[in-house]
Design brief:
Length: 69
């Protein structure tokens, strides 16, 4: 997993503390649109390295994704 992946996981891990829309944080931290960010995140949570890095977060995000399908 690259540095971008780690930074995305870190934001996802910390974000419940901030609340509100993430769009501003995403644009400011990563310089990408929210759509691009969530495409990267969706791929990232299928990466075994991400699951090893932060298993509880990745499992929670996988459950949320499954609930919306």
């Amino acid at each position: 997993m690259d540095d971008l992946g780690r930074r995305i996981l870190k934001l996802e891990h910390q974000y419940p503390k901030y609340g509100g829309p993430k769009d501003h944080q995403i644009r400011e931290r990563f310089g990408v649109s929210a759509t691009t960010y969530f495409q990267i995140l969706n791929t990232l949570i299928d990466d075994p390295e991400a699951a090893w890095e932060d298993p509880s977060l990745v499992n929670r995000l996988r459950r949320l994704r499954e609930a919306t399908i």
